[in-house]
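Thread: Newbie trying to understand structure tokens

Hi all, I'm a second-year student working on a class project, and my supervisor (Dr. K.) asked me to get a predicted structure for one chain before our next meeting. I've only ever worked with sequences, so writing a 3D structure as a token string is new to me. If someone could post the tokens and maybe explain what I'm looking at, I'd be very grateful. Here's the chain:
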Amino acid sequence: MWLDFVTYLHHHGHEEKLPWYRGKEWSYLRGGLRTLDRDYEWINNIHLDIGTHVIHHLFPQIPHYHLVEATEAAKPVLGKYYRDPGQSGSLPFHLIGSLIRSLKKDHHVSDTGDVVYYQADPELRNPSNSKVSLMLHKIPQLTRILGRIQALRLELACLTISKL
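---
Reply by user tm_fold:
Sure, no problem. This is what the structure looks like when written as tokens:
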């Protein structure tokens, strides 16, 4: 589940709205520049410098042990297109605020348009809404299902490795 949050936060939760490009507006460069670096402090090292997400999208062939160096070299070139993640404390608790802010307002993008932004669903904002209440009651069930899916993924990976 941790990696789900990490991946989500590399694409959501910035203070300014980030565009999603489609059709003729999309390019490899535009797609890579709309991602975000995040500072996970010492956790970066455990996850092979996972916080250096922008450079990973722009140059996926760079090995993880050069991502920090490549990011530092790219920052002056990228200029305003690079969004500095700021510094974390010893634990990245500051990202909880980014996650909550994004979950409150980044619900969907329009079905039309080549440059779209996440929008809030007004029905999800109303706490008395029966859909929200129904969703909250389903959380334990969804958690069990997600746990089973992760267990099946692990089982599949073990089976695949054992056949190598």
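A couple of things are worth pointing out once you decode it. The longest strand covers residues 20-21. Strands lie at 20-21, 115-116. Feel free to ask follow-ups in this thread.
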